[in-house]
Each structure stands twice: as C-alpha cells, then as structure tokens.
Specification:
This protein has 254 residues and is an all-alpha fold. It is 78% helix and 0% strand. The chain is built from nine helices and no strands. The protein is globular and about 65 Å long.
C-alpha cells in the first residue's frame, strides 16, 4: 500500500470518530449485528441443550454452562473494552469515546448479572448452596458493583464531559479486578472449578460442548455490539441535541 493510499484510508477511518458521522454508520450496522446475535444464540442453545452429550458427573444440570460461561467471559471482556474507550476519551478528549463507554456499561452489567444468576442456579445442585463467598464469585460480584458505580457516577454529574472523565477514572481503576476474577481459581483455594478453556492447552471437554460455548459467546458478543450501537445513538442524540445536524435528522423523522 502506497503512502498516499494509506493516508486516505486513515482519513476515512478517523472520520467516524465524530458523533455526527458515526451516528448513521451505527444505524447501518445494528441490523447485521442483531441478526448475527439471534442466529448464533439460537445455534449455541441448540448445540448446548440438544447436541452436546450429558455430563458423566453433573448430569443435565451442567448445561447451564452454555449460558453461564459465555456471560462470564463477556462480563470481563466488555469491562476491558469499556475501560479502553473511557481511557481514550480521557487521554484524547474525544466525545465519542466517552459515549461508547457509557453505551457499553449496561450490557456489561447485564452479562455480569446473568453470570452470577446462572452461577447460583448451577451452584445449588453442584455445591448444595446458591451462594458462597468464594474468591471467583466475590470478585465477579465486585465487577457488577463497578458497572453500577460507573453508571451511577455518570448519572450523578450533570455535565457530560465531566461525567465521562469521572467515569473514566473509576473504570480504569476497576480494571485491576479483571485479572483477579480470571486468576482467582489459581491464586486461592476456591470451590469454583478451574478454567475449562485455556489458550495454553486443549479444551478439557467434548468437542460439541466446546463448540456450543464458543457459538454462544459469539452470540453474546454480537448482541453486546448491537445493543451498544443502539444505545450510543440515543446518547448522541441526547448530548448533541443542540447541533444543527441533529435538528435536521429529527426533522426528517417527522
């Protein structure tokens, strides 16, 4: 690629960093990510509940992992992405970065709640109790509070730019909790089982079980993107309502 083409591609890419140009792009992307989310989630649930074999030790109760594990993965991943956008907004003072962080937070909180709720459903037949103050469970609960704290802090500050900066500090500080969640089963003696999927070794489960979890994780990922794009469009309209282009857009809708 020549230097001229590289520069032109860079300009085309960075033009979407403006809320005005990103707004119509998000509208075009939402249906694609939404459709992908629906198809992948249906496929993942079918594999998990109808194709994957019954577990020799836990029986049918183990099938909750096809929702629990992907939700737990996404709860951590979304937080890292949210903190990245928040940090980018703090460093570069870009409006869209803070908006993206705000748009991701509710999806991250939802995934964390699903992970905790399904974990309790799984824990009852496996451990004989709904909840224990296990290192993994406790750190995941702290993650939920971090999401809630991020959203509450932003809602408590009237000035959006100040709210973005305050939220960014909290989000970046909370990143330290992510490795604690992931490595908690290795660092402490916990009831929670170790990771079934690792980058260093082959999955310790049947191929169909692994496939179902990966497909569901991709479905949750696509959903999170679609939801964030929808949400960021609402945030853009709310924050940019005084701009001429927003007035023109609202006029065309009428």
């Amino acid at each position: 690629m020549t230097g001229h083409n590289w520069t032109r591609a860079s300009v085309n890419w960075f033009k979407y960093s403006s809320p005005q140009t990103f707004f119509p792009l998000a509208a075009k992307l939402v249906p694609w990510f939404g459709a992908a989310a629906a198809l992948l989630c249906v496929a993942g649930l079918y594999i998990g509940f109808f194709v994957a074999p019954t577990d020799a030790q836990q029986g049918e109760a183990y099938r909750i992992i096809f929702i629990h594990v992907p939700a737990a993965w996404m709860s951590m991943f979304i937080y890292v992405v949210m903190a990245f956008w928040a940090g980018a907004g703090l460093v570069f003072n870009t409006r869209l970065s803070g908006m993206m962080a705000s748009a991701l937070a509710p999806s991250g909180a939802l995934m964390t709640f699903i992970a905790l709720w399904t974990g309790a459903l799984w824990g009852k037949p496996t451990w004989g109790t709904w909840w224990v103050w296990d290192a993994r469970l406790t750190s995941e609960l702290i993650l939920l509070f971090l999401y809630f704290g991020f959203m509450a802090l932003q809602a408590a500050i009237d000035n959006p730019r100040r709210a973005d900066k305050a939220g960014a500090v909290l989000a970046l500080t909370g990143v330290v909790n992510i490795p604690i969640i992931y490595f908690s089963v290795q660092w402490w003696n916990t009831l929670h089982q170790g990771a079934s999927v690792s980058l260093k070794s082959a999955p310790s489960m049947a191929a169909t079980m692994f496939a179902g979890m990966i497909v569901m994780a991709l479905g949750f990922w696509m959903y999170s993107i679609a939801a964030a794009l929808l949400r960021v469009r609402c945030i853009i309209l709310e924050r940019e309502h005084r701009s001429d282009w927003v007035a023109q857009h609202m006029g065309t809708l009428k």
